[in-house]
Design a protein that fits this description.
The chain is mainly beta and 458 residues long. The chain has two domains: 198 residues, no CATH class; 172 residues, no CATH class. It is built from five helices and 19 strands.
């Protein structure tokens, strides 16, 4: 039998630097020093922040609503909120507060790596970006005897909090959402079977995802350790000057206006948000049609009911005409006659065929009093206006197509052409029935309704 040789196992006595996460290894009789406990706590905190950033992403989670209505004012109302900064720092504000200009850290557009000693001055008429940062401050001071006749001090606790900053706005207000990265999506992999085609695209996408390489370092400001890089932008605002106590010799700076309280915010797409978007909670829908009781009713509308509705003046009684209502504001400029189609289908003499005729919708009419809280040039209601000569021929004169027999009417509303105040097409898919709104959770689509009308009297 050949002789077997074994490599000698040598013990390593030198310690390599650990850069990926150092934690304690416990054994019987181990002495836990201050440094050992600090390693244990730091490991848990760093791993939590790592998962925050890697799994949830970073940006605003919820809240941090700004009070626009109280402006201009020396103090800005900020609501409770939670945000995750890069590297996973939690920016948690448990309750609302009134933020004064003396309470904000003023940063420079040239250098954001400093704190109090280099603060630039706020200027009237200037525009700024408001941000929130992760910060810490010590609590419960204790005296430590150094054994040499003098005492050192330390603290029992660390308070995790937030600090707000403003920095000069250069150009237009920035968008917090990053642009979509390019992906080749042209390679095949083992997951190309069936519906798994996008796997290679997702793989490339994740491989290109950037991740912060090092945690930010803090700087001192008014007793806080402020992590400038651990921030989330909240708004673009204007600061102006006004008289204090109506004294012409005394002026004060105030928050003048919130230019944009959404654009600068990067958002965390948490589960509730994604589910709400799937349901179409951000979309505008059709929630009422005046001819709803006729829709798919087996009993045809009487000629008088139909005639009265067709000839009704929507400016005096929209419920009597053909009126559509929305559950949110819709841009008036998008609401035109070609957003609707009114088709009457008549029987063809001596055959089983039906022939469609399109009624002439010449205009749309909006209510005289819009909803007060809605944006300018939007509406929640629109009524159809038909050609006057056509109405006279069909509903006043003796003759007309409706004398040919019972008629089926199809009325469509094209949601792809209607634009909600949020810039998205109205979710019009689905049928209105028993007061239910339209929609299938996606922008656009067509609301299709159908009803029957009795024959025009001879």
């Amino acid at each position: 039998m050949p002789e077997q040789k074994h490599d000698k196992c040598e013990c390593e006595t030198s310690e390599a630097e650990c850069t990926f996460g150092k934690r304690n290894h416990f054994f019987r009789g181990k002495l836990m020093s201050k440094e050992a406990f600090a390693v244990e706590q730091a490991y848990g905190i760093e791993r939590r922040r790592l998962l925050n950033r890697a799994v949830f992403g970073w940006g605003l989670v919820y809240g941090y609503k700004l009070d626009r209505e109280a402006l201009p004012a020396t103090r800005l109302g900020v609501g409770a909120g939670l945000a995750l900064a890069e590297w996973g720092y939690e920016l948690y504000l448990p309750g609302p507060l009134q933020l004064g200009l003396k309470d904000v850290l003023v940063l420079s557009k040239k250098d954001e790596s400093y704190c109090e000693d280099k603060d630039p001055k706020l200027r009237a008429g200037s525009k700024w970006v408001l941000a929130v940062h992760y910060a810490e401050r010590p609590l419960d001071e204790v005296r430590l005897s150094s054994g040499c006749g003098c005492d050192d001090k330390d603290y029992n606790y660390v308070c995790e909090t937030v600090v707000f900053s403003v920095r000069p706005l250069e150009g237009t207000c920035p968008c917090g959402e990053p642009g979509c990265q390019e992906s080749a999506c042209n390679c095949k992999d083992a997951c190309m079977d069936g519906a798994r085609g996008p796997h290679s695209c997702l793989c490339e996408w994740l491989a290109k995802t950037e991740f912060p390489q090092s945690a930010p370092s803090p700087c001192k400001w008014q007793g806080y350790q402020v992590y400038l890089a651990a921030r989330v932008d909240l708004a673009c605002l204007t600061i102006s000057e006004r008289l204090k106590d109506n004294d012409p010799n005394c002026k004060e700076l105030v928050f003048q206006n919130i230019e944009d309280a959404c654009g600068p915010r990067r958002l965390v797409k948490r589960n509730d948000l994604l589910y709400d978007l799937i349901r179409g909670c951000d979309l505008t829908h059709i929630n009422w049609i005046s001819w709803g009781p006729w829709h798919r009713n087996e009993t045809p509308a009487t000629w008088k009911e139909f005639s009265d509705r067709m000839s009704a003046d929507p400016s005096t009684d929209p419920k009597a005409g053909f009126t559509v209502r929305f559950d949110g504001p819709v841009e008036k400029s998008s609401v035109t006659p070609d957003c609707f189609a009114f088709t009457a289908i008549f029987p063809v003499e001596d055959s089983g065929w039906r022939q469609p005729f399109r009624a002439p919708i010449t205009a749309v009419q909006f209510p005289a009093k819009p909803v007060k809280a809605d944006p300018v040039d939007t509406t929640r209601e629109v009524s159809l206006v038909f050609d006057a000569d056509w109405l006279k021929d069909e509903f006043v004169n003796k003759w007309g197509k409706f004398r040919d027999g019972p008629t089926t009417v199809e009325l469509r509303v094209f949601g792809d052409l209607l634009r909600g105040c949020n810039g998205q097409a109205v979710d019009a898919d689905g049928l209105i029935a028993n007061g239910e709104r339209s929609g299938d959770g996606t922008p656009g689509g067509t609301l299709f309704t159908v009803f029957r009308v009795a024959q025009k009297p001879q």
